């Protein structure tokens, strides 16, 4: 199968961090990649992706991940023969990984028998949706007029919550209203994608959300530590180094340290703050 990956990135430091480079390098084994970042980034940094991607660009456009997907898709439309690809993916760097080889997950998703599919489906009672950090589409979707209208209509919105409502949920609603079928490899409700990362890792999810590093006053540190301790040493070092650059080395050292009692106390302090 021939795959095209449209990859959205963001780095507040304006760099290609070690975790992003690792993700892109791992992904490059399975298809062609176009990377668009929603931040300024010097050519010296973008050159780290040379040989791994067909095209990389970085400019602050303020349209979040879907704005990057839009730019990547229109670059692909202008420069590639999209009909030569069996699948097109929308991916972003809001996660650390892959923690396992991606080939098995890609094959399993593509064999779900659906027009579109995601690594994670949130089975929300009123608004079920594919989580937009890892979505795949067959050619009948990504070459359709419905998808072209959807992706071409992406504009800046107020905040990330609006992105989730208008574009993440909106993408699945577009599939449904257009008669396209969709499915998810993992069904993960609510906030479990952020809060139950160790269980999800043990169940085979090949990523964990970066947001886990800052949620609940650092009380997820023990879960992250157990995941890291099960990874190959080089990958553990990549994730730890990247997290230190983004969140501060002192914070990450403290986040990963402490007993279960320490984590429980952090969570209780978080809950106490919520009740004030």
How would you describe this structure in keywords?
13 helices, alpha/beta, 276 residues
Tell me about this structure.
The protein is an alpha/beta fold. The protein folds into 2 domains: 3-190, Alpha-Beta Complex (Spore Coat Polysaccharide Biosynthesis Protein SpsA, Chain A), CATH 3.90.550.10; 214-276, no CATH class. 46% of the residues lie in helices and 17% in strands. The protein contains 13 helices and 10 strands. It has helices spanning 18-27, 43-46, 64-79, 103-110, 139-142, 145-152, 160-177, 192-195, 197-202, 221-229, 233-247, 249-256, 260-275; strands spanning 3-9, 32-37, 55-58, 87-92, 95-96, 116-122, 129-130, 134-138, 182-187, 208-209. The strands form 2 sheets. Strands 1, 2, 3, 4, 6, 7, 8 and 9 form an 8-stranded mixed β-sheet that branches. The chain has a two-stranded antiparallel sheet with strand order 5-10.
């Amino acid at each position: 199968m021939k795959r095209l990956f449209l990859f959205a990135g963001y780095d507040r430091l304006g760099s290609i961090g070690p975790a992003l480079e690792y993700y892109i390098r791992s992904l490059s084994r399975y298809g062609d990649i176009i990377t668009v970042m929603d931040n300024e980034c010097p050519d010296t940094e973008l050159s780290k992706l040379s040989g791994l991607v067909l095209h990389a660009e970085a400019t602050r456009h303020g349209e979040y991940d879907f704005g990057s997907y839009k730019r990547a898709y229109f670059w692909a439309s202008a420069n590639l023969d999209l009909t030569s690809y069996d699948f097109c993916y929308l991916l972003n760097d809001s996660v650390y990984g892959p923690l396992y080889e991606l080939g098995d997950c890609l094959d399993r998703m593509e064999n779900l028998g659906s027009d579109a599919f995601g690594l994670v489906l949130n089975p929300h009672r009123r608004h079920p949706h594919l989580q937009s950090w890892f979505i795949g589409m067959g050619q009948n979707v990504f070459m359709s007029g419905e998808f072209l209208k959807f992706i071409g209509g992406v504009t800046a919105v107020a905040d990330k919550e609006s992105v989730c409502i208008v574009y993440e949920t909106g993408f699945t609603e577009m599939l449904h209203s257009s008669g396209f079928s969709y499915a998810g490899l993992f069904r993960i409700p609510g906030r479990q994608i952020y809060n139950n990362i160790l269980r999800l890792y043990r169940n085979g999810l090949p990523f964990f959300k970066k947001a886990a590093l800052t949620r609940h006053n650092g009380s997820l540190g023990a879960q992250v530590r157990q995941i890291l301790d099960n990874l190959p040493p080089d990958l553990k070092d990549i994730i730890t180094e990247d997290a230190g650059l983004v969140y501060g080395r002192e914070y990450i050292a403290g986040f990963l340290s402490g007993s279960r009692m320490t984590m429980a106390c952090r969570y209780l302090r978080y809950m106490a703050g919520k009740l004030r």
